Amino acid sequence: MSRPAVFLDRDGVLVEDTGVITHSSMAHPLPGVAEALMNLHKAGALLVVVSNQSVLARGLLDEEGVIRIQRSIEDKLMSDGAPRLDGFYFCGHHPHADLEVWRSECDCRKPAPGLLLKAAKDLEIDLTTSFMVGDRPSDITAGHRAGCRTILVETGRHTAPPILTWQAFDPVDPDVVCKGLKDASRYILEAAKW
Length: 194
Ligand SMILES: [Mg+2]
Ligand SMILES: [Zn+2]
Description:
The chain has helices at 33-42, 54-57, 63-79, 114-123, 137-145, 181-191, and strands at 5-8, 46-52, 87-91, 131-134, 149-153, 176-178.
């Protein structure tokens, strides 16, 4: 039986978007996030982080480093009362990546929906009852393309223009705009009908 998920962008949603994060000491959880995650978990949603990690293409971190930072973020959130998260999916690809191993026009770098689709397959997620929460148009577009409802939060780079690199795209409007993940979780719990 498939379950609903809440897909979460990392920077600007779970932690402050301070630019390129290359060490766990640079990752600061946003206020209200731990409580929001616990409420969504209690309601039966899987919690899955989906993140573009250009640090990989640029050779600033390896996969172990990216996973280490994610563990540290989850540890910090759990010490504030968050549940264990259910998945962490990231894309390090870029057609002009410095490192050949990441050089690819992939289908997983948001705004492409690949990370969400992979998670849905792995974790038996029902995309039609799921939500994507992000702070950028590329997050919203990825969620929309995966068939989820979408929420833009104002805790990150929502005022920055869409990133138009090799993946030029027409951004879609989110279903709703929320101040942060806590407000988003309230909206989801009302709108979800899980
Ligand atoms: Mg972000
Ligand atoms: Zn990718």
